Amino acid sequence: MIPYRSILIVGGGTAGWMAAAYLQRVLGANPAMPVQIRLVESTEIGSIGVGEATVPTLRDTLKILGIAESELFTQADATLKNGIRFNGWKHGGAAADDHYDHPFDHPVSLQGHSTMAHWMNLRQRGLTAQAFDEAGGVQTALFDKNLSPKFLNSPDFEAPIAYAYHLDAIKLAALLRRVATERGVQHSYGEVTEVEVGEEGITAVNLKDGQRLTADLYIDCTGFAGLLIGKALKVPWVSYADSLLCDRAVACPIAHAHAQQPLRSYTTATARAAGWTWEIDLQSRTGTGYVYSSAHCSDDEAVATLQQMHGSAQPMAEPRLLKMRIGHRARMWEKNCLALGLAGGFIEPLESTGIYFIERALQSFFDFLPATATAQCGRQKFNSLIADLYDELRDFILLHYVISGRRDTPFWRSYTEAVVIPPSLQELLCLWDEKLPHNTDIQRKQSLFTAANYFYILAGLNRLPSKGFGQSSYLAPSVSQGALAHIAKIRAAAVQQSPSMRDFTNMVRG
Ligand code: FAD
Question: Distance from the CA of 225 to the center of ligand 1, in angstroms?
Answer without folding.
Answer: 10
